[in-house]
Amino acid sequence: EIGIRRLEARPTATLCIDCKTLAEIREKQLGS
């Protein structure tokens, strides 16, 4: 949750990039 809050605090441009990374992390967590 802390990581997500950090993403929300970042600029939109950076957030878009982090959203892709966060999505990949979620997929790995669901896969495991």
TrEMBL record:
Coiled-coil positions are none
UniProt cross-references to InterPro entries, sorted A to Z:
Znf_DskA_TraR
What are the residue boundaries of the Zinc finger DksA/TraR C4-type domain, all occurrences included? 1-24
Pfam families, sorted: zf-dskA_traR
Q: What is this protein called?
A: RNA polymerase-binding protein DksA
GO MF annotations for this entry?
Answer: zinc ion binding
What keywords sit in the KW lines? Metal-binding, Zinc, Zinc-finger
Please indicate which superkingdom the organism of origin belongs to: Bacteria
Indicate whether Cell division appears among the record's keywords: no
User: Looking at the keywords, is Transcription present?
Assistant: no
